[in-house]
Amino acid sequence: MRALVDGLLDLMLPRHCAVSGRPLIGDEAGPIAPEVLREVQVAGADYCTRCGAPQGPGVGVVKDCNLCRDYLQGFGTREIVAVGLYTGVLKEMCLALKFGGERRVAGALSAWLAQLCFDRGIVGRIDAVVPMPLHVIRRFERGYNQAALIARELAAALEKPLLDDVLQRERATRRQAKLSAAQRKSNVADAFTVRSGRSDALSGKRLLLVDDVMTTGATLAAAARALKKGGAKGVYGAVAARAPLGDDI
Ligand SMILES: [Zn+2]
Prior knowledge:
By secondary structure, this protein is an alpha/beta fold. The protein folds into 2 domains: about 1-40, no CATH class; about 40-240, Rossmann fold (3-Layer(aba) Sandwich). It is built from 9 helices and 10 strands. The chain has helices spanning about 1-10, 35, 90-100, 105-120, 135-140, 145-160, 180-190, 200, 220-230, and strands at about 15, 25, 45-50, 60, 80-85, 130, 165-170, 190-195, 205-215, 235-240. The strands form 4 sheets. The chain has a 4-stranded parallel β-sheet with strand order 5-10-9-6, with helices on both faces. A two-stranded antiparallel sheet has the order 1-2. It has a two-stranded parallel ribbon with strand order 3-4. α4 packs across α6 (about 145-160). It is globular. The model has no long low-confidence stretch (mean pLDDT about 90). It binds zinc ion (ZN). Zinc ion binds near residues 50 and 67.
């Protein structure tokens, strides 16, 4: 009976994979078809702790890599976790979440991040989860903050409090996509502040700062700096995808 109802629902309200467009059938929950999800190369035992970028097989755990070697001052974070590189299906998923209105993609991205946080012992080193805020105008334009969607599900999976009202983006910064690395840095340098009256929530806490995509790391670094200025003891980063420099986001 249940199968019949599902079958009828599929006929009336056809669902499609948010990446491949293939119709989803039966008990395929979506929003991504299983064969598409399997294409994502989730970071394994070879990764960079500084920027989260996956490394080639056998490289192991490194403290800097060719993507972050020019950022030896770091990103203001103790360690960054990334599901994978901003390419292929993972890139398509980030785009579907950010620009395609496919909010449920956040579920798959946060599940991978949660697994990585457990595998790397990050879960025992953080007290709360903080999403990268959007400026209120961007939030209004899009209708939602994609980083907050990931952060909410990640906080639930890690059983940590979600602090989604402590950090605010004061300026509607220029879109980073067309800017050079130096421009990106100055564009976001003072974009973040801790909301007045919320320093108590941060004081002495170790936080996991969540964003969808990390390119140069300028945004993450600026937000981490604001959190620490606001009293946080330490900041870790969790991003769905780590993009190489110059990639258009
Ligand atoms: Zn790196």
